[in-house]
Amino acid sequence: MTQGSRKKVGGALGEMFRTAIERPVTEQYPFGRKVVTERFRGKLDVDPVKCTGCSVCEVVCPAGVITMVPVGKKTVGSREVEIKRPTFDLYTCISCGQCVDDCRFGALTLSHDFELAVFDKKSLTMDKALRYAK
Amino acid sequence: MRYSPEGMMPFGPVHPSLKEPEYFKLILEGEKIVQVIPRIGYVHRGIERAAQERTWTKNIYLFERICGICSFHHSLSYTEGVESLYPFEVPARAKYIRVVVAELERIHSHLLWLGLVGHWAGFDTLFMWIWKDREHVLDLEEEITGNRVHKSYSAFGGVRKDLPDGIAQKVRAELGYIRKRAEYYRGLVQSEETLSVRTKGVGRISQDTARRLSPVGPLLRCTGIGRDVRAEDPYAAYDEVIPNVQTSTGGDIASLLVLRIDEVLDSCRMVEEALEKMPAGPFKASFPRVAPAGESTYHVEAPRGELFYFVKSGGGSTPERVKVRTPTMANLLTATEMLRGHTLADVPVVLTGMDPCFGCMDRVAVVDVDRAKEWSVSGEELRSYGIEYYRGRRS
To answer: What is the pTM (predicted TM-score) of this model?
Structure first.
């Protein structure tokens, strides 16, 4: 490997002129919105109709985002069991998608929404499954 | 504390909320560094202990957060380490996909490093150009895994999703661009004096020193010792997609620059080869969620060098012990040797040269013992000092 065979200052000038007339690659967010890829993992969303309250998502979540809340009771055979629905504290969500993979009812999806900066925690608490059940 | 007659400069710890903190005590004779004493422990996050409380699957996401740049290598090392406890085989296609993502990560990590060396050496134009080109690789990673940084892609038994349709063609096109750019940068870093005056002969280590202090990754290979885990102890599909282990002989930052660009070019070749040889079939096998009892030691070649994982399972739902040794830990002592004999102005470039995982220095306290004076300078001021120092030397 030969190094430093040619020494000069300004060897990058040609490239500098080329990039000077190039279109800027910086996107002027929020005026120009980034188009995310198909697989992009953004904000978590739940379909309250499909959710059965099985609690698997709560068990597998590595960030403790999901809490199952009892919303009523039902009788299965001779037993009385609690009906539960999930609430999501999305401000701790790491968008790994493990809950989406493990939800066998297809109730959970990761949307393409990445604008999660808010002023209060409450606006990132998602309890629509809870409200739907009630 | 007793001070020696030389000047002593405490280096860090930096502000934790900005970049990763680290502390170096630099013993100076005037401008010359005579001794460097590193002190670690400022970013102790208790991850290994936390892993003992979490299930095997949850730990994948925990370990990939050890490092943002080589996150896939952390999850890869952990998952392959745990997989070795199972009596099952990972599908061949999954192994090839792992090679593709791992090599893409190596390309983006090396490009990031090249840009940073440009920045700390006062060549910000290079920094901007390289980081612009790096975006192409990050976009590919997002397309394959769903995220640019924390990919969450490796899973027990394979990968979580198959490669998207038509990605091979897109990867080849983008890598063609990256290859062209890398070849241009290879010529530029060797010919441009702005860069070579800050890197040539700076941070030089000999082969004997490297053997004595055992650095890993590019820091070892730049001294001419061709050690690479991918070639010597192949994991994933590296026994089929064989790397050409790159070495250089300079042992200084300039040779590290060329070496890492050569590695980028070789990674481009490996990604294309892996895509070509990739067999059809399942991308994931079904592995039980509880790992069988046993111990496994596993190592992979992360962009910065050998990344080591030890996993002990008692057959329960959580690991009994996970031990991680990152490449920066192995390279730290060598970095202290690289700094010895150089001036204070070389500190930013040399410390960036080892590609540290603890970031750089945002706050520096300067102590001049002779004048009994103590003051603080920011990392940015130190960078400007380095640039001015070399500008003064040239004129």
So the answer is: 0.88
> What's the gap in Å between the CA of A52 and the closest CA on chain B?
23
pLDDT tens readout for residues B240-299: 999 999 999 888 999 999 999 999 999 999 999 999 999 999 999 999 989 999 999 999
Q: What integer is the mean pLDDT of B30-55?
A: 83
What mean pLDDT is predicted for residues A44-67? 94
Peptide bond into B13 cis (omega under 30): yes
Give tens-digit pLDDT for B177-210. Answer: 999 999 999 999 888 888 888 888 888 999 999 9
Q: Which class in CATH covers the domain with range B64-308?
A: mainly alpha
- Residue A134 distance to chain B (closest CA, Å): 32
Which three-class secondary structure state does DSSP give residue B164?
coil
* Inside any domain, residue A72: yes
Is the pLDDT reported for residue B112 higher than 80? yes
Computed over its alpha carbons, how large is the radius of gyration of chain A? 25
pLDDT: is B367 or B161 the higher one?
Answer: B161
Of the options 3.40.1130, 1.10.760, 3.30.390, 1.10.150, the CATH number for the domain spanning B7-43+329-394: 3.30.390
Integer-rounded Cα Rg, in Å, for chain B is 22
Choose the mutation target among A37, A66, A109 for the interface with B, i.e. most B CBs under 10 Å.
Answer: A37
Nearest to B146 among A15, A19, A97 (CB): A97
Helix, coil or strand: residue B344 = helix
Q: Across the interface, which of A1, A5, A95 has its CB nearest the CB of B248?
A: A1
Q: Which domain holds residue A92?
A: 36-133
Integer angstrom CA distances of residue B145 from A111, A120, B80, B231, B392: 15, 30, 18, 26, 48
How many domains in chain A? Answer: 1
Residues of B in contact with A43 (CB under 8 A): none
Phi and psi at residue B39, to the nearest 5°: -130, 125
The crossing angle, in degrees rounded to 10, of helices B71-83 and B92-120 is 150
